[in-house]
Structure to design on (1128 residues):
């Protein structure tokens, strides 16, 4: 028996302590996923984290808690959940319940069954939050959870077996000195074990990757919305009421709001404008979606999995549309309005969503902002800035002069502003008479003596006017003036710089004064190209406000009067606008990891699976072609060699090789050397005689036991050789017969 | 691959019991064994394993219904954990061998010990969480756990004990080796059943004796189980100064090329011969019969210790001398399995005067008689 070098190992109490720590880490990992869900859960998550961390650091604390507290805990959690369920939605209540249960289990002393419960609860929490957030953090946390969870379950099993069902009371293992425990851990620390654990973890990940790729996917068009999670959190600049400056406030945030997978960088041939909210009503520095429009389109939602354009949209020319679909991943909590281009042929959602369609503005919104990532697959993306609306001219649009409001009691009596209905709201200039007169003056200054009836032409002139009088700045300070005056007119009268909302509002007032129906739009403009993973990043700082002016023929034209923007699409601009810039910063690199996650993992579907299968097939084919070609080359070479004349010059080498091989074979047979001996000799060199004899004894005995014997087998000879081999194996060297003779004989017999 | 230590004669079982070479491995059979466990082996999910399967199924269904790859990731991790669990379990059993070592004597009513030696022939990986099931034919069952880790190359002896209730033949079985290693999801049972039949000797019994008083000298020629100057040959040994030349064994001396002398048994004049008659007509009461067996076994042992036991005869079997411990054990083995027989013709022991026979007594007792005189009562 070989000498065994025993490695030190932890005793049962120490193992229980490790299990306690690992259980706590597992719980912490799962509770931390709650931070990614919704800020409403943060207080509970912080409380849980602190409790668990305290219990990990000092495991004696749970022992000091009175027993009645432990008894009352679970019923109390049940009551809290019931109340929570009555007040809130199911999913948030369920997350809170799960968090409380995980915390409860993590801070209480556990049996084996309760350890398994803890692992299961943690898994549930991680999976539910992962499904809700679809964030990259889930990937990191599920991997960590897998690693820690496996070690935890391993320990639980080992402890159960070592303790044979009876474990020491917590009072024993919680009294372990932390310093001594750390020293013991250092004693048992073994790099090989660490390496093995890492290898095992890598194996688990590798196998799971294979399983993930191999799990059959079926393109079901849309999944059931089992884990939808909405939030009250939303960016105020993307809502139905927008005060001046709210969009600019969004711009202060540099976080990524949307990631757009466009395939190739060449797919972006202009500045993308993502329409989210269209606001037709203006008053006192505030844009709104008029009540008339809201009342007209209603607030009722319908389940959508694909948004298809209406007749007018479908009939528009498609020259500007991108042939490849674009996939938009919008982060949660941005807005309930979907970011859409000017035109599209279809918008596919990942699963069924209840959407509120606004057929007047061609926008769509969720009932509440999604707390989680929302992905849209948009086909026929068109950023031409033209939104068909053939029904608009047929609407009852009052004459411009009748649409004055504040400060004009006569008109206000006849057309009370609050009762203006769409489309009147798109032409209303709700300012005082004096301001209106001033605006009319400005319009005359813009158009000159000409009578401009073309909306496009007016838009170009108005944009030039605004650009020549105001600079762009995010910091705006309105000049002193009458506090009751309209803030946009005050700004317009000054030469102060302004941000996009001022320019959009000013253009709106001017265009309406000139008699062109105009509305404001908020959304995102532009973005940056991420070269690491090849996609388009739209940040919150890309939030923007612009206008849409009705061309009088049946379409709305996008007009971006902010200096430096494109102005009117298709019209020349003083300074060409770059469609986008590339961002190769470190934050862009980090963001590319997220995109990698969304693109390769979250969006992995039947098509991706088919592509992988196809690439495997192609690889197999390529290998087969290579082997076939190599085989054919070898075959042709052999055939050519055989067909060449058989002379001593050409085939002499073959004869020489054959003779040498024959001689070597005869010699080996005579000497009793097998090919395996030669191979072993090359690998290990010469082996001791006793070892060789031992192997031959085993081989000979095995042959003796077999029914089928070789033709040259002779029982008596075998017995004799076996005896001689035994002498060589165990006897004194002086008593040995000639080992090589015996080996030869044994080989021949075998 | 490692070979279990084979210095002792008791056979090793388990995957590490025999040296296996790669050329002996049949690939087809190996692959088949991955899906269909070989005979005697089985893999059963534990409660935790069933729960894991149910969770996996739930997550899989939810994944298909919601087309959520997050759920598919979780599912693939759970499934890979099960796969790795099977792989680790296989590695855990690999190159492990065990053997059962019995520690006789086994006596009714007394604690019997069964040793199990476990050996790990692995070079690097330790072995964990092995459980060994035990069962005896009288109904006792038990389980031994490996407990702490078994390091590579280490041999550990585990002990299981039970108390045989009755004399007779007892089959001691190690029913198999099982393990829930590594995560407790799967309960893997590795066959490797070992069974040994042992004789459980009759229980010792308290008795009142006046045997020595009843003893009378036997006739010449009776022997004792110690060396002396009788006629029965027991052994050859090397010549020592003082040995009689008449004792020299010349043929053996010539063969060994050194002087060898005969060792002879001493003769006895006052020993006892045990005669056990199990006629059913005599022993109609089973309890009395058991008591007789116990008395006979106890007397045999006591007399042997005192050097007073010459030999024994059971029913019509051939009488035999009890000279060594092995002879006594043979007698006790016989007493362990005797049953009442219908028509036993007791063997005759004419050469000895001190023959102990047994007969039922009143009050369900049993007495031993020497030449018709009651000599011991139980």
């Amino acid at each position: 028996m070989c000498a065994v070098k025993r490695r030190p190992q932890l005793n049962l109490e120490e193992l229980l302590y490790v299990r306690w720590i690992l259980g706590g880490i597992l719980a912490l990992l799962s509770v931390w996923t709650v931070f990614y869900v919704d800020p409403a859960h943060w207080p509970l998550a912080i409380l849980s984290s602190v409790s668990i961390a305290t219990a990990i650091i000092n495991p004696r604390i749970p022992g000091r808690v009175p027993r009645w507290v432990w008894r009352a805990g679970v019923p109390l959690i049940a009551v809290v959940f019931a109340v929570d369920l009555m007040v809130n939605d199911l999913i948030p209540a369920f997350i809170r319940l799960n968090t409380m249960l995980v915390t409860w289990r993590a801070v209480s002393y556990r049996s084996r069954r309760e350890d398994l419960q803890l692992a299961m609860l943690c898994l549930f929490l991680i999976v539910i939050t992962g499904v809700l957030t679809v964030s990259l953090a889930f990937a990191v946390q599920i991997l960590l959870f897998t690693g820690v969870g496996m070690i935890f379950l391993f320990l639980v099993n080992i402890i159960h077996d070592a303790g044979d069902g009876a474990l020491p009371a917590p009072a024993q293992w919680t009294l372990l000195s932390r310093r001594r425990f750390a020293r013991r851990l250092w004693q048992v620390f073994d790099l090989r074990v660490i390496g093995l654990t890492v290898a095992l973890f890598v194996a688990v990940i590798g196998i799971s990757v294979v399983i993930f790729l191999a799990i059959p996917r079926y393109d079901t068009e849309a999944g059931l919305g089992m884990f939808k999670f909405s939030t009250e959190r939303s960016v105020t600049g993307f809502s139905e009421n927008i005060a001046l400056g709210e969009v600019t406030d969004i711009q202060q945030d540099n976080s990524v709001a949307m990631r757009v997978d466009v395939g190739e960088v060449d797919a972006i041939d202009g500045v993308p404008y993502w329409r989210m909210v269209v606001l037709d009503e203006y008053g006192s520095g505030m844009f709104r979606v008029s009540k008339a429009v809201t009342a007209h389109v209603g607030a009722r939602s319908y389940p959508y999995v694909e948004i298809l354009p209406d007749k007018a949209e479908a009939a528009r020319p498609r020259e500007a549309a991108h042939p490849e679909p674009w996939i938009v991943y919008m982060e949660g909590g941005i807005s309930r309005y979907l970011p859409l281009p000017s035109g599209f042929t279809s918008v596919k959602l990942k699963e069924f969503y209840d959407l509120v369609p606004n057929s007047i503005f061609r926008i769509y919104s969720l009932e509440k902002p999604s707390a989680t990532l929302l992905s849209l697959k948009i086909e026929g993306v068109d950023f031409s800035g033209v939104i068909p609306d053939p029904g608009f001219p047929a609407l009852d649009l009052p004459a411009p002069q009748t649409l004055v409001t504040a400060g004009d009691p006569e008109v206000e009596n006849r057309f009370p502003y609050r009762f203006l209905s769409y489309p009147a709201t798109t032409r209303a200039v709700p300012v005082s008479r004096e301001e209106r007169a001033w605006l009319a003056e400005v319009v005359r200054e813009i158009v000159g003596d000409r009578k401009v009836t073309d909306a496009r032409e007016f838009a170009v002139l108005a944009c030039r006017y605004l650009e020549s009088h105001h600079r762009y700045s995010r910091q705006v300070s309105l000049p002193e003036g009458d506090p009751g005056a309209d803030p946009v007119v005050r700004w317009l009268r000054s030469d102060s710089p302004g941000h996009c909302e001022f320019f959009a509002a000013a253009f709106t007032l001017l265009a309406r004064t000139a008699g062109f129906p105009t509305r404001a739009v908020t959304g995102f403009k532009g973005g940056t190209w991420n070269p690491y993973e090849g996609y388009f990043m739209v940040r919150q700082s890309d939030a923007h406000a612009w206008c849409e002016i009705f061309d009088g023929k049946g379409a709305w034209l996008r007009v971006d009067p902010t200096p430096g923007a494109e102005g009117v699409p298709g019209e020349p601009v003083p300074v060409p606008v770059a469609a986008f810039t590339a961002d190769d910063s470190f934050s862009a690199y980090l963001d590319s990891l997220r995109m990698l996650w969304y693109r390769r993992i979250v969006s992995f579907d039947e098509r991706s699976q088919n592509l992988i299968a196809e690439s495997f097939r192609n690889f197999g084919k390529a290998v087969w072609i290579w082997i076939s070609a190599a085989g054919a080359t070898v075959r042709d070479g052999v055939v050519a060699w055989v067909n060449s004349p058989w002379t001593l010059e050409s085939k002499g080498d073959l004869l020489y090789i054959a003779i040498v091989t024959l001689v070597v074979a005869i010699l080996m047979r005579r000497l009793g050397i097998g090919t395996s001996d030669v191979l072993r000799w090359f690998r290990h060199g010469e082996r001791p005689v006793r070892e060789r004899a031992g192997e031959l004894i085993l081989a000979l005995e095995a042959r003796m036991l077999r029914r089928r014997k070789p033709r040259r087998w002779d029982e008596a000879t075998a017995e004799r050789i076996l005896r001689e081999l035994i002498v060589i194996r165990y006897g004194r060297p002086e008593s040995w017969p000639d080992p090589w003779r015996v080996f030869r004989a044994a080989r021949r017999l075998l | 691959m490692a070979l279990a230590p084979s210095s002792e004669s008791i056979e090793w079982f388990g995957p590490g019991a025999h040296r296996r070479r790669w050329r002996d491995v049949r690939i087809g059979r190996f692959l088949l064994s991955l899906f269909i466990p070989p005979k005697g082996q089985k893999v059963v999910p534990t409660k935790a394993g069933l729960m894991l399967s149910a969770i996996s199924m739930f997550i899989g269904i939810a994944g298909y219904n919601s087309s959520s790859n997050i759920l598919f990731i979780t599912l693939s991790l759970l499934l890979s954990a099960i796969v790795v669990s099977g792989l680790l379990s296989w590695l855990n059993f690999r190159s492990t061998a065990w053997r059962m070592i019995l520690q006789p004597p086994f006596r009714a009513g007394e604690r019997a010990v069964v040793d199990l030696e476990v050996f790990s022939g692995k070079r690097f990986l330790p072995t964990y969480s092995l459980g060994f099931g035990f069962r005896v034919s009288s109904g006792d069952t038990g389980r031994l756990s490996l407990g702490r880790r078994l390091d590579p190359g280490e041999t550990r002896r585990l002990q299981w004990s039970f108390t045989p209730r009755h004399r007779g033949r007892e089959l001691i079985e190690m029913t198999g080796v099982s393990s829930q290693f590594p995560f407790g999801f799967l309960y893997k049972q590795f066959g490797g059943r070992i069974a040994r039949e042992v004789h459980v000797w009759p229980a010792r019994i308290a008795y009142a004796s006046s045997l020595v008083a009843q003893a009378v000298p036997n006739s010449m020629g009776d022997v004792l189980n110690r060396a002396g100057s009788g006629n029965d040959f027991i052994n050859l040994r090397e010549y020592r100064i003082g040995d009689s030349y008449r004792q020299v064994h010349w043929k053996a001396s010539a063969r060994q090329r050194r002087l060898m002398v005969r060792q002879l048994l001493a003769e006895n004049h006052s020993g006892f011969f045990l005669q056990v008659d199990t006629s059913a007509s005599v022993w109609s009461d089973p309890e009395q019969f058991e008591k007789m067996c116990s008395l006979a076994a106890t007397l045999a042992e006591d007399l042997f210790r005192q050097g007073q036991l010459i030999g024994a005869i059971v029913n019509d079997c051939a009488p035999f001398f009890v000279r060594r411990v092995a002879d006594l054990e043979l007698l006790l083995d016989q007493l362990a399995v005797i049953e009442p027989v219908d028509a036993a013709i007791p063997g005759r022991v004419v050469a000895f005067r001190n023959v102990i026979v047994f007969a039922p007594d009143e009050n369900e007792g049993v007495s031993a008689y020497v030449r018709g005189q009651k000599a011991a009562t139980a």
